[in-house]
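Thread: "does anyone have the structure for this chain?"

Original post by V.I.:
We have the sequence but no experimental structure in hand. Need at least a predicted one for the grant figures.
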Amino acid sequence: MADLSRIRQNKFLVLGRAGMDIYPDPPGTRTKEASQFFACLGGSSANIAVALTRHGGIADLLTSVSDDAVGHFVLNQLDRYGVGRNHVKLVGGEARTSLAVVESRITDHQSVIYRNGAADFEVEADDYANLDYSQYGALILTGTALAAQPSKTATFEAIRLAKAAQLPIIFDIDYRPYSWPSNEVAAKTYNSVAQLCDIVVGNDDEFGVMANDYANGKAFAQSLAQSGVAIVIYKMGQLGSITFTSDQQFETGIYAVDALKPTGAGDAFMGSLVASLAQGEELEEAVRRGSAAAAYVVSRIGCAPAMPTTKQLEDFIDNHSGLSAA
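Reply from O.Q.:
Generated one for you, tokens below.
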């Protein structure tokens, strides 16, 4: 097991997708009725990286984007948020940066994802071979990077090199069924990766997929903590979360808000969780702050633009009535 205190270096290597999110404007508009749209940075890994920088951390992104106007939009957005992009590769051919058309509405919410020939799947193992992993406090990866080749092999290579450098590895399961041939294939891959990680975060459906039985997701998450994963966080939406370690478990509620949209909560949770650990917070407090960040983001426009700074998060917590019971 890696030394989790290294997370306090507050410098992270984040592996996975970056893309463009497109929102019908104004909020509440249905896509099919829209006459104008708002575009911003998207993609789970890019969002997590933004969340880390918003809290004063350093985050370098590892991914690929298409060498076209959309890919360069993503690069410019990464610069805007202060996310390191020296390890973002431009790819040509038919590969395209992912697009997501996302409604800012809860009732009858529609998200349409375009990931055929996704550019981020074009990352290769050689892209990770010469990185200095020792300069980072942790490697953070999202499960979408494992859904296709050559990205899958490259991700396992990044994990191998990170472990060789004794770097803590943090895994956001981030299961997107449309990227996988079957639940069974996803489960086998995720299980192989989880056993190599120090922190694993996912929701009840994702752990259910890993267990090959949705009813046993919670028990599966707990078993990971007993088999060598230092921290496992089992998220349950409106029911809060349960955190498992080898010697304890605790429940955390949610911060109730009037949500504008259902997206971005998981990325905000992960980013603020890790940032809080980097700032020296105890695990229970870090999970609480992750829960607050998730509530903050779903009540605001966009995902990357909505990630709170440390001050914004603290003001939100101070002015909120508090956690609901888990």
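V.I.: this helps a lot. The chain has a mean pLDDT of 96.
O.Q.: and The domain at 4-17+46-63+119-318 is CATH 3.40.1190.20 (UDP-N-acetylmuramoyl-L-alanine:D-glutamate ligase).
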